[in-house]
Write a structure and sequence with these properties.
Jelly Rolls, 3 helices, two-stranded antiparallel sheet, six-stranded mixed sheet, alpha+beta, about 20% helix
Length: about 160
């Protein structure tokens, strides 16, 4: 026969296990983000290809960007959404993967495309004022056939900064 003390101890251990499982699980109805960043994503046509882009539309998400990542799927990237059109410049501090950056103005016109090197602290400025910057894996912009002067359709959910 199990003593009361043993029964209480067993119930306590079971309760602690259940609490640990409950803490580790996401709330009901929530799906973990596959990109690991917690950012919303949008599908966007760029040149001949469709990319899944994480939306960096707040100061914090734009500041952190793609830093500390070891890789990114070939059909993924990030769209940086700024409050208004302005000269933009990015650097690659703590960014481990080589990237293309596509700068587009508020109308979606590509104003410049540059290739950026990992960990490079030099800035990569836009050739004209831009409201959007799209980072893709190095070589993806050329492979998609996008070039300066092309028009991009910016998806509605990524047109405005949330500041």
């Amino acid at each position: 026969m199990i003593s009361r003390r043993m029964l209480r101890l067993s119930l306590l251990v079971l309760a602690l296990i259940l609490i640990g499982v409950a803490i580790a699980m996401p709330p009901l109805g929530c799906q973990p983000r596959s990109n690991g960043s917690g950012l919303r994503t949008v599908k966007m046509q760029i040149g001949r290809k469709t990319f899944t882009l994480e939306i960096a539309d707040t100061y914090d998400s734009r500041t952190y960007g793609l830093m500390q990542r070891d890789s990114m799927p070939s059909d993924h990237g990030m769209i940086f959404v700024f409050p208004d059109e302005q000269p933009l410049a990015f650097w690659m501090k703590n960014t481990r993967i080589p990237l293309d950056i596509i700068y587009a103005n508020s109308a979606g016109k590509v104003v410049s495309i540059l290739q950026m090197k990992p960990y490079d602290l030099n800035t990569y400025p836009s050739d004209a004022p831009a409201q959007y910057a799209i980072e893709l894996n190095a070589g993806a912009a050329a492979a998609a056939g996008v070039k300066a002067g092309d028009m991009l359709i910016i998806p509605p959910e990524s047109r405005s900064a949330r500041e």
